[in-house]
Amino acid sequence: xxAKLPVIAISTFFSAWLFLPDFTISLLDYVGIYAIVVLGLxxxxxxxxxxxxGQAAFVGIGAYATAWVTTSLFIADNLxxxxxxxxxxxxxxxxxxxxxxxxxxFLGVITLNLSGFYLxxxxxxxxxxxxxxxxxxxxxxxxxxxxxxxxxxxxxYSLISPRSFGCVIWLIFFxxxxxxxxxxxxxxGRAIQSxxxxxxxxxxxxxxxxSYRAKVFMLAALMASTSGWLYSHFQRFVxxxxxxxxxxxxxxxxxxxxxxxxxxxxxxxxxxxxxxxSYLQDIIPSIFGSNINPESIIFGLIMLxxxxxxxxxxxxxxxxxxxxxxxxxxxxxxxxxxxxELNSRNMPPKGTLILDAxxxxxxxxxxxxxxxxxxxxxxxEIHALIGPNGAGKSTIFNILSGVDFPSEGQVELxxxxxxxxxxxxxxxxxxxxxxxxxxxxxxQSVLDNVALGAHLRGHFGWLACMLRLDRREERxxxxxxxxQIRRCGLAGSENAIASSLSLGKQRIVEIARALSGQPVALLxxxxxxxxxxxxxxxLASLLMQLRLEGLSxxxxxxxxxxxxxxxxxxxxxxxxxxxxxxxPQEIQKNPRVLDAYLGIDEQSEGSL
Length: 608
Fold this sequence. Notes:
Blueprint lengths: L3 H13 L5 H26 L7 H17 L1 H7 L8 H24 L6 H19 L16 E2 L2 E2 L3 H23 L2 H11 L1 H6 L4 H27 L9 H14 L6 H24 L6 H15 L5 H9 L29 E12 L2 E12 L3 E5 L6 H8 L7 E6 L2 E2 L5 H6 L2 E3 L12 H7 L9 H5 L4 H17 L15 H14 L4 E5 L7 H16 L3 E5 L3 H5 L4 E6 L2 E6 L1 H6 L1 H8 L10
Parallel strand pairs: 5-10, 5-11, 8-9, 9-10
Antiparallel strand pairs: 1-2, 3-4, 3-6, 6-7, 11-12
Helix pairs in contact: 2-7, 2-10, 2-11, 2-12, 3-5, 3-6, 3-10, 5-10, 8-17, 11-12, 17-19, 17-20, 19-20
């Protein structure tokens, strides 16, 4: 989508603001307030893959915090002589954000490590808890609530009318929208998007998934609190009713209808639900009578329709419609080679011991997957790990990359013991890897997927990315990604969606992603699977070139012809035990290897 379209849309929106009727303005104010909450849900649920049914509670915290600050006699007695009363709503905003941050951090520590349906269940539990807490605290007015909340003021100008207050609401929303767009279009944004694809892949790229999940959770909570602050001063009255579980479900409903993974979907979903609810409140009583309220049934039917025909929400459909009139803009493109400005890692001298596993044993209950496995990897060497299915190759591979821990023995990387270290620690030390089952950001471009591998080579944080202070570093990361894409033979595929590629090319994308992190050791899990003959030859040429450049490569592969022509050394596993290590020629003549693969006795002759 052209970058000019959002600017045109926003300009048109504010140009029409003065001419819209008062009733429409009031509805649009509510749309903006809700859209701020939904925008946080888009980041948390649609992008990062965490579902929360408790956002209404954070809206309530922001609303009650500013309501208490601006109406409390305690605050008036202690701050009345220091601050003009018109500043109290802004004090209430800061106070609400501080409480929200602390509570979101505390709740995140407790709940965010849960997986599956446990996280949504926990958010339901504490969402209900806050709802009942709001209604039972006397200083918050109980179920009656707090009245006489003052309007917002800027200097001497009171924003008491919906038209003037709405300008503040939508300015805040569009500011947050711009900040979120910048965040997602950055190194940190790619890390956030990787959370939805699985924590294993993200951790292997050096991303601290626990930290990022907590940050996303708190970011969404702060946006919800800001929405509550606006709601409180718009309504000038708060009670617990708007902050119950059904409101949280409605926010999720808005996100799903608009498009849970699309920032502009927050506006679309919030607007549709708000206007539909408004008109249903007028239409339903005239049809069914005032004692019947079938809104929930109608919304349920709408949800079924959306999920059936527009599973990704309505916004992607609108984008496809506009693309027929507007030429899409490529995200990133260069016409000639430009070197990346990222810091480079010094490769160890050839022959240096890079990875060393000593007596590694792995037990799963009574099952021994690996028994006293020892193998090493030297700089400038391709070492293959082979064995029949069920031999324990994947288990030792995961231990060597920090995905799993050994029951006994230890792994050293560049001479440092990695005992107790996790996958991101291995990545920080210079280990890159691919996966047996391809793990990519399937809805993102090849360029974004490969750029994710350079995550550890960037340094700018969230705030800098939101304010676009990271543009030079971001360009360097993109250039590095393009270099690795071309190096791996995928030139011209930079802007292709990863899921649109064949399985073989997706595996090559994984290799390019690992290379963009400039590793000293590369662990490849069946990289030739799904490749055609010529593609395998190109992959072999690439790996041999990487070996000449000093990169250490450990490879699991079932294609024996591919391995025998490529590897310097081969280690063979059978039933979790090393049965042979040597050159390809030695392995092909080893009787134990022949017996393990072909099931013949040790006196038989043959080759792999």
